[in-house]
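User: Please fill in residues for this 357-position structure.
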């Protein structure tokens, strides 16, 4: 098949965004887009290109003192009457315009057009970010070829509307269970009602005040919430069990053990089981490449509240942040779009950062 990623398209981040959007790549169907991206990179003399599944990596090896990663996922969520792209004025509409083919376009454009970046650069295009972790190309490569991801700093080109979102909060889920004793509801005094026992759990949640913390100038705000409650046997039985599922979103200065200890302290005296734990990532903005990146952007960073793949880089010891032109609020929406002006601004910022000597 003819490659739509021609040299003219690769030279223009806006045309490139549109061409990438118009290659269908719903999660687990990234073969075509990975083939095109790989082919576009293979012919470039200053890059060495590798592939693992439908994840493509290309790198410079100029012997620079520092190495940075520019990373983006190639997949999208399923289409919703928004494929292929349409252009309306300054807005490019279509599935993946914001999340995150405009970001992928930055990395691909710079990979091809910048033969002598000031740092060595690893350009990383990965599969299956939008679905379960087990398919995630960044996760798979971190297991199979961790050396591909060795670097001093990473920029994940997810949508942030041109703002730098640094680090990310962690997330933990747990089940708090209250116990009672079954009885016929006509003689309720013979039992112990586990749903009533949940009242104290809910009171503690209602009284809970999430901590706010500022790290490297980035503000984070924690939250502890009930997200599900299950209990009851039937309409005439005093229930002997009630489960309250809670979700704790925690700032990246707490690790997994500290997050768990904190939640256990809040629910002291209750039966608690942790069901899911994903630690966050510190912003890591004291790194020289990160500082120079912030200078190029020229704006203060903000803390990332949601969990992102930045945490996977952090787990490999690579400080990372999010920076992309798309509006994160439009991701996964039917009217997903990106502003052409934002694409150009961000491309200029990245160019300023990587090309400066
Ligand atoms: Zn995304």
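Assistant: Residues filled in for all 357 positions:
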């Amino acid at each position: 098949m003819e490659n739509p990623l021609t040299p003219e398209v690769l030279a223009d981040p806006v045309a490139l965004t549109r061409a990438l959007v118009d290659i269908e790549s719903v999660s687990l169907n990234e073969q075509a887009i990975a083939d095109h991206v790989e082919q576009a990179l293979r012919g470039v003399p200053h890059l060495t290109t590798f592939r693992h599944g439908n994840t493509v990596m290309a790198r410079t090896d100029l012997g620079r003192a520092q190495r940075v990663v520019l990373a983006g996922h190639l997949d999208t969520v399923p289409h919703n009457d928004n494929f292929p792209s349409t252009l309306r004025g300054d807005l490019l509409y279509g599935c993946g315009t914001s999340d995150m083919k405009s970001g992928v376009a930055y990395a691909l454009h710079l990979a091809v057009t910048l033969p002598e970046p000031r740092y060595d650069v690893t350009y990383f295009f990965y599969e299956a970010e939008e679905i379960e972790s087990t398919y995630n190309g960044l996760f798979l490569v971190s297991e199979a070829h961790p050396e591909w991801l060795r670097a001093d700093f990473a920029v994940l080109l997810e949508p942030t509307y041109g703002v730098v979102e640094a680090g990310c909060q962690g997330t933990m889920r747990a089940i708090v269970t209250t116990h009672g004793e079954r009885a016929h509801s006509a003689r309720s005094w013979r039992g112990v009602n586990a749903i009533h026992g949940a009242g104290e759990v809910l009171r503690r949640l209602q009284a809970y005040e999430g901590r706010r913390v500022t790290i490297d100038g980035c503000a984070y705000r924690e939250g502890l919430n009930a997200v599900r409650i299950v209990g009851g046997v039937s309409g005439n039985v005093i229930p002997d069990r009630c489960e309250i599922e809670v979700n704790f979103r925690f700032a990246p200065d707490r690790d997994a053990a500290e997050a768990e200890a904190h939640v256990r302290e809040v629910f002291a005296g209750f039966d608690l089981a942790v069901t899911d734990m994903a630690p966050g990532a510190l912003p890591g903005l004291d790194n020289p490449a990160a500082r120079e990146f912030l200078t190029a952007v020229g704006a203060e960073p903000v803390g990332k509240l949601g969990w992102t793949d930045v945490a996977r880089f952090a787990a490999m010891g690579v400080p990372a942040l999010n920076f992309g032109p798309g509006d994160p609020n439009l991701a996964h929406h039917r009217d997903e779009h990106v502003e052409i002006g934002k694409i150009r601004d961000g491309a200029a910022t990245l160019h300023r950062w990587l090309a400066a000597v």
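For context: The pocket of zinc ion is lined by residues 73, 99-100, 129, 158 (CB under 6 Å).
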